[in-house]
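Example 3.2
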Amino acid sequence: MLSLGESQVLVRTDRPAYHPWPAKVSAVTELSPHFTRVTFRDDELQFFGTDLLDQRIKILFPLPGQALFTLPNLDGNAWWEFWRDLPEEERAPFRTYTVRDVRPALGEVDVDFVVHSVPEGSEVGPAGKWLLTAQPGDEVYLVGPDARSLESAIGIDWHPGDATRLLLAGDETALPAIAGILRDLPADAVGDALIEVPTAADALELEHPTGVAVTLIAREGAEHGAGLIRAMDEWIAGHGELIEAARAPRAQKLVDVDVDTDILWETPTDADSGEFYAWLAGESGVIKQLRRTLVTTQGVDRRRVAFMGYWRIGKAEN
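Structure, written as tokens:
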């Protein structure tokens, strides 16, 4: 194997797209009151996928007070089958995140975590507990893309086709994904990004093309999503011609997803050629309302709208 930092030519094969990578925390950096960046490192991460944009990964955390269990060298979904077959009390908790950056030459992967405010009387979840005490040397598994796989881009939900006018909208849980998309867009991209964050101090500086306007809405204790919904309404009011051109040729019927029991998730990959593409992600109830506004009320062709319920208020991720 080449040592880190040496140039190499990856040969892509039909090996599984995702792989559980053992990794250790090498740095914990507070970005703002509600965002913390954790850098993970391992020599094998030189082969971690670099397709980026909004690519999803999973992180397996150790059980409280215990060392991280050892996974066999498994590829694809075999790790999940192994985890599923463990006794419940031995299953390490895992959560879904977005890859923020990858530095193969250093064997490093960055993940930005949201530091959630926990209502009085509520319990911090396993990932939140881990983050509160995370320090260099802590071990996890990153279940993420293998750069040596022909399918390493699986888990990316940004599919704008040839759209020339882009809209991104989401809350703080979507900010890492939106940040990745903005970073990776072509320099001549044009559009808007609407992002609701907990406080003004969480208005992070994001790299983005000059033609994309980024609006950060500070919630400051208001109802979750209210500011984002208002910003979307204002955006629609100012882009009537764009909305008109993006309308579907006929009436569309949306399934009424119960966001308390089902997953709200639709990411079209076969959008017709057209000027407009929207990407919405965040709290499921808010995203459902934004989807209804764009697709049902405004009549935007649903093939031009990706929507993802990342989480639900009052409900832990399974």
